[in-house]
């Protein structure tokens, strides 16, 4: 865990969040500034900045958790379609330097494009 990391503090509970999923290696919570209803952030329970630095045990855990979390999110929101987004580095739009995946439920009328 990294002392000044917002997402590490969310994992430890020092910063409150609305939890969507948790197991020993993965945590998922609602985004504080959602692009759509149910916008969820999925993170490893180890501090790691970028996808290429993620230890194998955590990438396997996230790989198997993502479909389950996505299913729960789309079931909960009723939005059948969704995007998976993952940014690495400031130039790519990463604001929080703790690796994370966005699950963004989509509707035709959501104004996000496509
Ligand atoms: P990035 O731009 O780094 O890919 O996405 C970071 C995401 O984290 C943003 O969508 C932002 O709204 C979300 N976020 C930042 N701080 C917090 C927080 O304290 N709580 C929650 N729930 N989400 C946060
Ligand atoms: Zn962290």
Helix-strand pattern? HEEEHEE
Task: Give the C-level CATH assignment.
Answer: Alpha Beta
Ligand list: guanosine-5'-monophosphate, zinc ion
Low-confidence stretches: none
CATH level-two architecture: 2-Layer Sandwich
CATH superfamily: HIT-like
Reported for the largest beta sheet, the result is: 5 strands, antiparallel
Largest sheet: spatial strand order: 1-2-3-5-4
Quick one: how many beta strands? 5
The CATH topology comes to: HIT family, subunit A
Residue-averaged pLDDT, rounded?
96
Give the number of domains.
1
Helix run count: 2
Q: Give the helix/strand class.
A: alpha+beta
Gyration radius, to the nearest Å?
14 Å
Give the N-terminus to C-terminus distance in angstroms. 37 Å
Helical amount: 25-40%
Shape descriptor: globular
**How much strand content do the residues show?**
15-25%
Organism: Anaeramoeba flamelloides
Domain HIT: 6-113
Protein name: Hit family protein
Motif (Histidine triad motif): 98-102
């Amino acid at each position: 865990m990294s002392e000044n990391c917002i997402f590490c503090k969310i994992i430890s509970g020092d910063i409150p969040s609305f939890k969507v999923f948790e197991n020993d290696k993965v945590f998922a919570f609602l985004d504080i500034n959602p692009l759509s209803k149910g916008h969820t952030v999925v993170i490893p329970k180890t501090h790691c900045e970028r996808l290429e630095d993620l230890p194998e045990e955590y990438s396997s855990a996230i790989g198997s958790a993502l479909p389950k979390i996505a299913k729960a999110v789309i079931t909960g929101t009723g939005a059948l379609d969704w995007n998976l987004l993952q940014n690495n580095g400031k130039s790519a739009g990463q604001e929080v330097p703790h690796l994370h995946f966005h699950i963004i439920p989509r509707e035709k009328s959501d104004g996000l494009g496509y």
